[in-house]
Design goal:
The chain is an alpha+beta fold and 50 residues long. Helix content is 26%, strand content 28%.
Length: 50
């Protein structure tokens, strides 16, 4: 049985970056498929130039 791990993250989020190693370890387990879904921490009215 295959299970899908949906990883909702923001490329600018330090917490997301810090969890990357753990997410990679879980995704490496047999029968686990990683689906990355980037979001926007700084979007809409909170957006600013980078």
């Amino acid at each position: 049985m295959t299970k899908t791990l949906h990883c909702l993250f923001d490329p600018l989020c330090g917490w997301c970056d810090g969890a990357g190693g753990t997410v990679a370890e879980v995704a490496a387990l047999p029968g686990v498929v990683l689906r990355r879904v980037p979001g926007g921490l700084f979007s809409g009215k909170g957006a600013r130039p980078i």
